[in-house]
Amino acid sequence: MNLHRVRHIVGNYVFVLPALLLFLIFSIYPFYKVFQLSITDWDGISPQLNYIGLANFIDLFTDNPVFWHSMRNAFYVTFLALTVQNFLALGLALLCDRDIKGGNVYRVIFYLPPVLSGIVVGLIWNWIYDGNYGLLNHFLAFIGLEDLSRAWLADSRTALIAVSIIHMWKGFGWGFVILLAGLQSIPRELYEAARVDGANAWVMFRHVTVPLMIPVFILVSILTILGTMQVFDIIIATTGGGPGYHTEVPITRIVSTMIGSSKFGYACAMGVVFGLILLAISMVQIKASKMMRQV
Amino acid sequence: MNTRSALSLTGTANEVNYERVKKLTVSVFVHAFLVLVSFSCLFPLWWAFASSLKTQQTVFTDLSFFPSQPQWQNYLTAWTKANFGLYFLNSLFYTVCVVVGVLLIASMAAYAFSRLQFPGKNVLFLVLISTMMIPIPGSFIALYVLLNKLGLVDTRLGYILPQINGGLALGIFLLKTFFDDLPKELEDSARIDGCGRFRVYWHIALPLARPALAVLAIFNILAVWNEYILAMLVLSAKQLMPLQRGLMVFQGAHITQYPLLMAGIVITILPVLAIYLMLQKHIIKGITAGAVKG
After folding, report:
1. CATH code at position B224
2. Is B66 within the bounds of a domain?
3. Which of B118, B258, B269 lies at the smallest CB-CB distance from A127?
4. Chain A residues touching residue B48 (CB < 8 angstroms)
5. Looking at residue B6, what is its pLDDT?
6. Contacts of B119-123 spanning 24+ positions with Cβ under 8 A
7. Total beta-carbon pairs less than 8 A apart between chain A and chain B
8. pTM score, whole prediction
């Protein structure tokens, strides 16, 4: 009887065993390993780990302006994504939420860039921004503004904004789809009731749409921040972080510290700090959303 | 009296007209804006396609939307000489392996978490799911170190296994919620008929979960097809590279061969485009359901 019961439970474990094994090997172990390596000066080859305490972290905080510059760049792109990209997405969602003809066609088109890879999108835009043959310069010449033309991605004054525009072009359709779904889940009766009470479009937006959409806004913002801060593919396919360090982001720094300079331990410390920053941002957001819901 | 009623009639007719004109104007502006945004989405893709059909000489000067002499042989060159055929088959192989792996392993685990009893079940589930929420941007370093130790760097398996693992958390979460909502009666009657756990899962639960499995498959197909960073770290042999990596290698070596690069891009996009257009309803439903629930 007892043996039978044990066999039964073991049999149940078999169902989760493959998942558990993969998870232990490829999630838990690397997670632990990042922390362990972050307090070593490991170069990726030497057989022994040389523990150096918090030296990597101290260096990172006191003597690595490039990393913090890359962080600033990521915040810059994230700020633009949170404002320009998400407001565009919200505006388009509001327009498509009305019963307009072809709403579904627009939705299919807007969500097309998000299903493409960052590499493909970056390589296509490379050519739009090209200094010699780029479409953008052709267009500027066409409307008589050739004075403005330049190699958009190689010019230190425009590289970061050019990369941000690519990122937003790829991302707005995603926010649009989620915001539109949120809008469509608002019961129509609420609008009808407000209309009967004499509310105009702005009042309805302010007092019906916005309060009900707050959870969706929070979700879209958190995912926008986490996604944009970790941007990598678009950068690597366009500028590779250049010119100089003008478009470096944390992930490109981590990768070049690891592969380029073989400072694996140091790269892990960067990963830990960056991960904690991301965690802190999302905690603040979640906390803020809870406070807003109580008000 | 006649004149008065006639007057008021024209009055309301004017008002109706005014309302209609206003509505029409607004709608024209709305559509103009939406069409403009749509154009900005589609134009770069069309331009890549048009450029893929131009020659090395004309590609920089010919600004036509469709070249007068389309060079379809560019695709043959890209497929054979530029290795995009090889990269394509690699991508296909990786995608099939990862998707099958994720569906199988995630559905088994999800079924156990939903239906079977074993000690530590809830804790285990929470730990699995929490990795979905915690960002660990440095973990690819440790993953690389691990694959190196296991001798899996520059092997197909080393590229596939971490990606199967990467799809598990979302997969288990999605499928467990789906199994939780399924009525248990069918499974109970099968069990009374003497079916074992595994046969109930395989013959009863799994076929019922087809809609959820389809959504999960689509997401993983897109994720694997578009994956880059792991391919960059793990794969350095050309014979093993998927399309995204191949595109970067090609652009690194032949930066000026735009028509071939664009042909490679079109080859990379086409399967995604086909899947997207066929299944866009499921895709959009999937991301919104996931987002609104989560």
Report:
1. 1.10.3720.10
2. no
3. B258
4. 124, 127
5. 47
6. B119/A9
7. 241
8. 0.88
